[in-house]
Amino acid sequence: MTGQPAGMPYWDTAELPPQPQLQGVATADVAVVGAGLAGLSCAYHLAERAPGLDIAVVDAARPAAGASGRGTGLLGPRAGPALDRAVRRFGPRTARRMHRAGERAVRDVLDLCARLDVPCGLRAGDQLMATRSPAGLVALAHQARTGRELGLDVPVLSPAGIRARVSVPYRAALLHRPAATLDPAALTCALARACADKGVRFHGRSPLLALRPGDLVGPELVLPHGRLYAGQAVLAVNSAARALELPVGTILPLEVYAVATEPLSPGAYEALGGRAGHAVVDAVSIAPYFRLLPDRGLIAGGGTAVVPAGLSAPRLQALRERAWARLEGWLHALHPDLARVRITHRWSGRIGMTGDDLPVVGPVHGFPDVWFIGGCCGHGLALSVAHGAHVAAALLGEPEPGDPLPWHRSRAPRLPVDGPGRFLVRGYVDTLGRVARHAC
Q1: Cα–Cα distance between 354 and 25 in angstroms, integer?
Q2: Which of 410, 361, 376, 399 shows the shortest CA–CA distance to 102?
Q3: Which domains, and CATH codes, for the chain?
Q4: What are phi and psi of 46, to 5 degrees?
Q5: Counting Cβ atoms within 10 Å, is residue 16 exposed (0-12), middle (13-18) or buried (19+)?
Q6: What are the DSSP E strand ranges found in 239-376?
Q7: Would you call 428 exposed, middle or buried from its count of C-beta atoms within 10 A (0-12, 13-18, 19+)?
Q8: Is 88 exposed, middle or buried (0-12, 13-18, 19+ CB in 10 A)?
Q9: Is the pLDDT of residue 24 over 80?
Q10: CB 3.0-4.6 Å disulfide test: which of 256, 260, 298, 425 passes with 10?
Q11: E strands of 55-200, at which residues?
Q12: Residue 181 phi, psi (nearest 5)
């Protein structure tokens, strides 16, 4: 893979705990690799439930440097595939549990923000899954019917109901709640500080190079300037699993894009749902979406996704410029008052996708006492925090209530990302983008 996520996100990195590079030989009861929301949530819950446990968090850069600090801050209950597809794949009982788990994950993040007293621009508001296209109407109709059959609270909004919230001519929408928007980098950094306050130590600029089964107990983590021997390890590394040759199936790295604007006029801000803090996500997969900011700016994301593996740096940058230009054009056409609004930030981020839209959260085959978290498929803000708490409980031997969810598993389906097969995967992702842009 060439290149790294580009552009400066709207979010600033807040104060962080000291993160010396790991040098020489070190030990820990638990090593957490990855200082994003999933890894930090795991470390936080471990330290809270088992005071005195020696926990080390290592990261290739620093907390919030990856997807957890480059997201767009939409906190919603989506978990796994759409409701109708979840019923076809897993049956109604599991589909209902999946949706409930997503709702619970949102509430857990809201509770965590309150507990940490995070100044992260948190705004509770509805999340509208809306559409202006025939394809989106069909998708919404299937999901609405399934929601009713499962007894879920996912109301359908008419055009009038949508206009009462946002002044954009959508034809129908589903109302998802609980939901909110927030600053994802602020939450990630606050979680890092809370971990440090509980005695968790951090090592930055320490990318994991290799993982080996330990000679006596626990794994050996090979880093550029040392070794870390741990009793247990959690690899919250998302799509970096492929580079580490972890046997967790295919966690495909996708690069996605976002832009932020200058403050809108008061009239435009209110017309787009400013006072209530609504966010609008299109019903068509990877189609553009938008949310408003406390400073009256607007963030838009989606519309294009790129498989960066194998692309040269100039080619990847050209695709980024094209994606940002498309997103800016969509934003300017969204509402008359946005026609000349100035873009102040453009950035990209990497998410991990799986072949069946489900995350991977489970023990790593062949590596005793090692767990993996990744593949949230673009819905990681709430799910990552929930997954970290789940793995912390598993490491401490605490039982999980109810039946395991479908994504509590050790591997995702394999995708043909090597050889000629990678062109099929890239073509499929490109097709999703064309369909999404046509629908908007």
Answers
A1: 35
A2: 376
A3: 126-180+252-354+424-439 (3.30.9.10)
A4: -65, -50
A5: middle
A6: 252-261, 279-282, 289-292, 298-306, 343-353, 360-363, 370-374
A7: exposed
A8: middle
A9: yes
A10: 260
A11: 55-58, 74-75, 123-124, 127-131, 156-157, 172-176, 180-181
A12: -130, 150
As a whole number, mean pLDDT of residues 384-402 equals 92
Tell me the one-letter amino acid at 7: G
Say if residues 188 and 5 touch (Cβ distance below 8 Å). no
pLDDT tens-digit readout, 420-436? 777 788 887 887 777 77
**CA 243 to the chain's CA centroid:** 20
State how far the Cα of 361 lies from the Cα of 363, in Å rounded to an integer.
7
Residues 127 and 76 sit within 8 Å (Cβ to Cβ)? yes
Residue type for position 337: D
pLDDT digits (tens, 9 = 90+) for 108-126: 999 999 999 988 889 988 8
Calpha distance 99→208 (Å, rounded):
34
How many Cβ atoms sit within 10 Å of the Cβ of residue 134? Answer: 10
Question: Looking at the predicted structure, is the pLDDT value of residue 2 above 60?
Answer: no
Which amino acid appears at position 399 of this protein?
A: P
Report the Cα 391 to chain-centroid distance in Å. 17
Task: Give the side-chain half-sphere CA count within 13 A for 18.
Answer: 4
List the helix and strand counts (H, then E) for the chain. 11, 19
- Write out the DSSP string of 333-369: HHSGGGTTPPEEEEEEEEEEE-TTS--EEEEPTTSTT
222, two tokens = 């090979």
